[in-house]
Queue: 2 jobs
Job 1
Amino acid sequence: MTALLSLQSVSKRYGAVQANAGINLVVDPGSIHAILGENGAGKSTLMKLIYGVESPDAGVILWKGQPVNLSSPAEARALGIGMVFQHFSLFETLTVVQNIALIVPGRKTDLARRIRTLGDEFGLNVDPEAMVHALSVGERQRVEIIRCLLLNPELLILDEPTSVLPPQSVARLFETLRALQARGVAILFISHKLEEIKELCDTATILRGGQVTGRVDPRGHSAKDLATLMIGRAMPPPLPATVQAVGEVRLELSGLDFVNDDPFGVSLSDISLRVHSGEIVGIAGISGNGQQELAALISGEVVQPGDMIRMLGHAVGAVGVAQRRKMGFAFVPEERLGRGAVPEMSLADNALLTAHGAGLVQNGFIRRTPERAYTAACIARYDVRTPGPEAEAGALSGGNLQKFIMGREMMLEPKLLLVSQPTWGVDIGAATDIRQRLVAMRNAGAAILVISEELEELFQICDRLHVLHKGHLSPCLPTHATTVEEVGTYMIGAGKSPEVAA
Amino acid sequence: MKISFIRRERASRTAMLVAPVAAFACAIVASVVLFTLLGKAPGQALYSLLLEPFLTWYNFSEVLLKMAPLLLIAQGLAIGFRANVFNIGAEGQLIIGAIAASALPVWYPQGDSAFMLPAMLLMGAGAGMAWAGIAALFRTRFNANEILVTLMLSLIAAQVLNYLLLGPWKDPHGFNFPQSVMFPDAALLPILLPGTRVNISLLFALIASVLASILMRHRFAGFQLLVGGLAPRAARYAGFSEARAIWVSLLLGGLAAGLAGAAEVAGPLGQLQRSVSTGYGYSAIIVAYLGGLNPWGIVISAFVMSVIYIGGDNAMVSADLPIAAVWVFQGLLLCFYLAGLTFIRHRVSFIRKAKP
Ligand SMILES: Nc1ncnc2c1ncn2[C@@H]1O[C@H](COP(=O)(O)OP(=O)(O)OP(=O)(O)O)[C@@H](O)[C@H]1O
Ligand SMILES: [Mg+2]
């Protein structure tokens, strides 16, 4: 049997960074092949070479035994290769079906129908007429996956497809992938979640520093082994569970209602919650249930006069982002590129973006030395793999940029921190590190609100949980007194049958 | 064989420097073709267009004279362009600035106060700001597109100028020409280079360049504008006010254009006339982009553009070139430059089609 795809000593260098070095890889039809590695190991780069986004500096790519020289994704798609990127490639000002029509041939009405049927079949429901900018990250990902599937690919590349999906959707995605596998479709699958890889994949190639350092059958290894293979050392120890007395209320939402003008957005109704000094409160739920709206209201990107939001002792309904930050608030948004960071700017300038109050500006002048020092400290403390403060944010690997943004906000030592998806795309070593730091901040008295779809993570670090579903917030569930199952029922709308829920 | 554009990992510095030069070369080649088709000797045309401005001191000083308003306005506009605020109506702000500055000498034609000139400059700058401020108000209050509003305000400004020159401000002893009285000496800008018409407004333009450079490179306010232009959602996330960016951009653009208008009437014109509006406000847009929206790049592009202006005047006389041909040359330059910009973020690759 000839391999579907094989790479022979493929290399790619970006300036000073050797992202891929002499990579050999063979993918057989019908195989689900995992690519494992730390942040910045070169996984996304390798996938971009296969999909024709970038071309290799050296080496050969064989498709069904024939050498190919892909110069664009369109050529890769013509061969039968589909890819879902780690950072999405949808146009925000277009609707779902318009976005899909850019790549998939066919009439829009037919496409809309096919999107619906495919969505039902694989549990990837989205409204074809929704504007993309109104969709959550999770929903955008569904659109990307649907767009690939509509082209009937023979090889499907998924770059961290599960990092923003809730467990139920992950399970359905896996069913989808197994169904595709049964039809002979090969899948290249990148994930930092080792349990998933053990469950789904039959082969795993491990990358470290741009080189292949191992090839294993993940089903025969424990997650711990895989992690050790991946990061080249043993995993950091788990978090010590401590219980501590909480201090004053730092964030209080009382009966917060929000009517969304956007027909595809979510309205919030009667949201009440409190976050005290010295605790971490989690908001679980499937993305697209009002998380974006809630985060924007708390951050001040959307202002709604009134005293339904109180922060650090003030009613902040009509107060903008800048003042809230001055009061001691910091925020990590779910979108890294274009919101949490400006891709075209250097890391140093991206530090300035929100850390300007930390002595980086004096009399309106930017102070370059402290700016660099702050950036360098963030890079060092949060183990951001990059050539240095001058690197463009857009050139960082996904997980490294996430570490940078988390670091930038945490270094501000905020009194109140709001984090969306704290460890999105971050490798397990770094994710453990970030969680430990969040807990340390809490122990030092910070109030932290975490919005995440990863239940495991929420259960690890939170003192209390709420679940957001269709714009309604569940009652408070103390983490030690609840179960994943209970949270799960709230996530699909407690008391309703699962079919009703999205 | 297939040609495709591939996005670069990062902006190419070489391409950034080569693009304007290459654009210039391409514009020359294209205009040679064009001039030949027009039946004009291309050699002669290019000689007067590009070389004659350097051949006599007088011609060269005229280049510097033109450069002052172009540079001043372009610096103001570029700040806004980098923040994605598109002030297309600098011409109107220039006209209003010129009108406001003219009010004093028109009302006090015998005035000899030392405060007259500074007051005129302040009035011109202030009026330009106010005129641009209308667009800022419309944009922030009613979300009206500033491109359209500034452009339409320019048409209104031109009509205001016409009205004043044909009616209330017409020089009674001016043989019915649509122009104001000649300004008294106290209303004229001092000459910078003796023996030429170059006045101190060139210094204003150079100072504006230094200030613009400081703003965009070293001031936090400039950084906020840049973020707003590159990634509006990041600006919102960081709490940089969009309304403020719109106001700052438009007011600075209006200030520069208004000041340039005042300097025109208080400089080479010496009175308010229709020819105060010769399209500097529009050419400055080209200048700003040719200079890569970079304050020092704009100094160079303003100079190049002034050379083309003066050369164009010469070419009309010595090479019998229609003025439209000069405009075409300017247009070609901009088109080629914009095409060249593609190469800053993209590279071309030639690929032999490999059949799977
Ligand atoms: N466009 C680029 N310009 C410069 N360097 C780049 C670029 N893209 C990636 N790199 C560098 O190449 C290396 C590999 O990046 P890549 O995105 O492939 O990592 P990854 O394994 O996908 O990591 P993650 O798990 O964080 O997504 C990183 O050091 C990154 O900084
Ligand atoms: Mg990646």
Note: The longest helix of chain B spans residues 242-269.
Job 2
Amino acid sequence: MHGVKRQTQQAIVDRKQREKSKIEGLLKLTDAVLDRKKGKDWSAEAFDATTQLLTVNPEFYTIWNYRRNILLNGLFRESTPEDINELLSGELALTMKFLQSHPKVYWIWNHRQWCLQNVPQGPGSDLDGWRKKYWAFELQAVEKMLNADARNFHAWNYRRYVLANMSVPRPESSELTYTMKKIESNFSNFSAWHQRSKVYTSLWHQGKLDPIKSKEKEFELVRNAMYTDPDDQSIWMYHRWLVGLGHDKELLEREIGVIQELLEEQPDSKWCMESLVHYKRLILTNYPSDRDKDLVADCVRLLDQLKDIDSARRHRYEEIHRAVVNISTHP
Amino acid sequence: MAADTGVEDGAGNYEVTGIPPLIMSTHLLVPLHVKYIQGLGESKDDLAYHLTAHLRLNAIYWGLTALSIVNHQDALDRDEMIEFVMSCWDEEAGAFGAHPNHDAHILATLSAIQILVMQDALDRLDVPKVVKFILSLQQPSGVFAGDSFGEIDTRFSYCAVSALSLLGRLHELDIEKTTNYIIQCRNFDGGFGSCVGAESHAGQVWVCVAALAIMDRLDVVDVPTLAWWLAERQLPSGGLNGRPEKLPDVCYSHWALSSLAILKKLSWIDADRTISFILSAQDSEGGGIADRAGDMVDVFHTVFGIAGLSLLGYPDLLDLDPVYCMPAATIEKMGLRKDWQALERRTTSES
Ligand SMILES: [Zn+2]
């Protein structure tokens, strides 16, 4: 149970009193449906009974299984593709209704996915007609879900599934526009930053975008975000991904400069300090020079401050401290 | 000691909202939690009890594990429990459903195996049959489905790996294939998601890291990055969240703590503050632990609260194995212990 307020003993007693008849009804319905299931009843009546039970309890996975079996072994048999399409269309409407009140129930998303996989060919000679229509609608449906909760990971997973399976694929780059929209409305949407990292990786792999150019654009975006809200960890984690292993010394030094400047404006910024330590360590490891002593001193000074202002993670900073000193004593 | 609740009307009159005042406990209320767990099977007058029938076997595993960690394993009747587990067997599938007459699923099957292991009753199980069920769920990509309908999730990969290992049949698993799928779920933050492309999430991180630990493949984890991401789950309240910019929660705290213990970086968070956060989520009247202070308790958050406390060295608790989420002594006896590290157990006087 998540986010449900605790009740007083009296409120619990009252609630239980009110629930009595509901419990009786639920148990009777459950027994009836499970009996039909045992008897391999694939009828329309059985199907309707599962609708009734799932409306009360959409998490009852056995009943979703039974429902699919009724479709496969009963209602789909001797049906025209039109009938099957009609049935699945009903399933999609039902799951959409359920998702609005239960947006985080795995089994509902799961059933929806199964329905889409079972859309027949048609109508008529237009073999992909129904499918195209459904998939185009799915993207809108999932956007609606993400408008209601921009961090719902079920919805994001489903979005990726839809994008990967649409019969008319959208260019992957359009996902950069979508995540940008999400990020602009809230910099803290880590789900959107995550999605961006996946889309870029894929586009770079396919040679559709130049990693150096796209990273430059991202650095600019992140810089704006850092200055807007330097306490937002999403931005700093994404920045760390952009810098990567620090194999571009010039870029590394440039970003250190940017963060240093921000730190001067925000002298207590934990994330500025934490990132500076990380990037300076990359310089120490990748590009040993006679400046090392100064860099180590910088890191030690920042780490001492971090131990103070972020004491919960003090042991981590101490561990890094030891590692930094170690680099300088064992070149 | 009544803390400020923000729901009282000032005159101590809280009946208006039906929400009780928040009593902050400073220690673990073991007898109350034992009573709460014992009472779960008798709450048949509660609608929620019936609406969670599809989680019954999981709930028994959670209750038994919680009781074992507070050293009251005998508080529930052993024979009755074993009989109930066996009544959930789905002969057609060759595995367990969550409740009698419910369909077999890998989630319920792992819970059944864990209960039978803890009750030393594995001899009741048709091992070859259940192994066949588990192995049949592996997909060509290497991930596992939850049942024959094919929903995939790295949670199910963990269930398969953990169950096979507890049954002494891990050698029948294609470890490379299983590991390769998990590697594909790794993200830029060092964490893991539920499937390829999915965002990191403390619960999914735990299933992936624990599965890798069982398969001796922790070498594929970017420990500094992941442990950093996990440590940043801790919020000023002491609780940990499951993803950046989300609310703290006892269950997510546990998954992050377990993952850190497996990576031997549990010292990277402030244990004292997490302990207070978990203790504050107790119901000091009826027992049990909630997701956060003031919320309704359930057995799920009760076990993860107690398990988290055990890993953090809370006094007078038995050790929890963070890889299997079962009593460490049980896992050690089976020769399955991996190289994790919890915080040192404190003595009562320090608490
Ligand atoms: Zn929770």
Note: The pocket of zinc ion is lined by residues A 2; B 249-251, 291, 301 (CB under 6 Å).
